[in-house]
Amino acid sequence: MRKTLKDLHRSIITLKNGTRVANFSSPHIYTFDDGSKLEKCDIRESGLFKVHFKEKVCKDIRDIAGVEMDFMLSKPLLSRINMWEQLYNEKKVDIVFCSLPLLTALKKILDVKELMKMPFRGVRTKDRSKKLILTDRFVI
């Protein structure tokens, strides 16, 4: 089932500091340092909105292989980005948590100043063992 703008709007939660946040596509629950919890996305939806990539194997001077990854944005992914941007422009959401590959792909087509005008951010962990996420700092 594809989500509508209304469905996305219903998935937004407000942290105790007043920041309205949403989950772009993670199949994991986000737990914040203020005790708030942001629900996970459906596993099928999560797969639909993952960033695709091309791999290029590169060898260093010692002949050790590394992988260069080129992230790409699919049409469904771009459509979902546009939906979240619409909610952001309507001032219904402040931060939409997305994967680092998505942030990397966005930085290929936008500079950081432009990205700062959008809601897309990565999580900044406060405590890795407790899997707590900060409510006042986000990865750009």
Question: What labels would you give this structure?
Answer:
140 residues; alpha/beta
How would you summarize the topology of this molecule?
Blueprint: H1 5-10, E1 13-14, E2 20-23, E3 30-32, E4 37-38, H2 43-48, E5 52-59, E6 65-72, H3 75-89, E7 95-97, H4 100-109, H5 112-115, E8 120-127, E9 132-139
Main sheet overview: 7 strands, mixed
Mean pLDDT, rounded to whole units? 91
Low-confidence stretches: none
Determine the strand fraction and express it as a percent band: 25-35%
Which shape, going by the Cα principal axes? globular
The strands making up the biggest β-sheet line up spatially as 1-2-7-8-9-3-4
Q: H/E series, N to C?
A: HEEEEHEEHEHHEE
Short characterization:
This protein has 140 residues and is an alpha/beta fold. It has helices at 5-10, 43-48, 75-89, 100-109, 112-115; strands at residues 13-14, 20-23, 30-32, 37-38, 52-59, 65-72, 95-97, 120-127, 132-139.
Task: Walk me through what this model shows.
This protein has one domain. It is 29% helix and 33% strand. The chain has 140 residues and is of the alpha/beta class. It has five helices and nine strands; from the N terminus they run αββββαββαβααββ. The radius of gyration is 16 Å and the shape is globular. It has a seven-stranded mixed sheet with strand order 1-2-7-8-9-3-4, with no helix packed on it.
